[in-house]
Amino acid sequence: MEKGLAIITGADGGMGQVITAALAKEGYPVIMACLDPEKAASLCNRIQQETGNTQIEVRRIDLASLSSVNNFTGQLLKEGRPVSRLMNNAGILTTPVRKTEDGLETIVSVNYVAPYMLTRQLLPLMQPECRIVNTVSCTYAIGRIEPDFFEKGRNGRFFRIPVYSNTKLALLLFTQEFAERLQDKDITINASDPGIVSTNMITMQAWFDPLTDILFRPFIKTPAQGAATAIHLALSDEAKDKNGCCYANCKKRNVSERIRHHAQQKQLWDDTEILLRQKGIRF
Fold it and tell me: Do the Cβ atoms of 17 and 44 come closer than 8 Å?
């Protein structure tokens, strides 16, 4: 079967670059879904030269804007090109509270609502044996889905780590729930936990950042090491039949019973569907 599109969000980031190059090397036509296409253009050219794959293009998507995601998916649906890989790699960890134009907390929109929407809307294009890979985080273990999740990220005072953790739990619950709903299709969805990776995301905009860089960064993963699990899920034979799983260090992780059978999993799906319908989004 001819390889369909590989779509990678945050493809110009640290891990995104590595994932893009790996899929391009395997001969997939790649769409680098990025917030700043001009910034990504030189990277796209470099990966084309390094891999010999000229079927790589950059398209703009703003995951903090539902209309931007809708425009992105709408164009792809209009083109009708089959999709073989969807890598929901992009994520943010911002410090101030920021609401999007849709009234969502920005971290929640980028890390959870937009990947949910992107995945659901592109489902008609996904060809048999398509693989969806969602980038989560070990912090999902401390995540909670609270009543103000979509608008505030968490109840009470804003702290970015708990909000980030909540979004990664939500993305993992979506992965598990969608896997159950895909059982009659030859499509899989799994989660990749890259571990703690040396990217700009871990910068805290605080006085201790220089000290952290000296003492901490040498002992955490490089972007290539962090991206390895997502690449494994996208390309390896071992992962081709896995569905609804969470992987770390290229191995299936034993997720706790509390997460595997989370009481809010189906409710979160329903709430997200209602939210997006209220925003005029259709699947």
Answer: no
Phi and psi angles of residue 75, each rounded to the nearest 5 degrees, phi first: -65, -40
The tokens for 109 are: 């929109």
Strand, helix or coil for residue 2: coil
164 belongs to the catalytic site: yes
Neighbours of 149 (CB within 10 A): 27
In the set 112, 116, 164, 247, the catalytic residue is 164
34-78 residue pLDDT tens: 999 999 999 999 999 999 999 999 999 999 999 999 999 999 999
What is the full DSSP assignment across 203-232? --SSTTHHHHHHHTGGGSB-HHHHHHHHHH
Q: What is the C-alpha separation between 249 and 225, in angstroms, rounded? A: 8
253-277 exposure pattern, b = at least 16 Cβ within 10 A, e = fewer = eebeeebeebeebeebbeebeebbe
**pTM, entire model:** 0.91
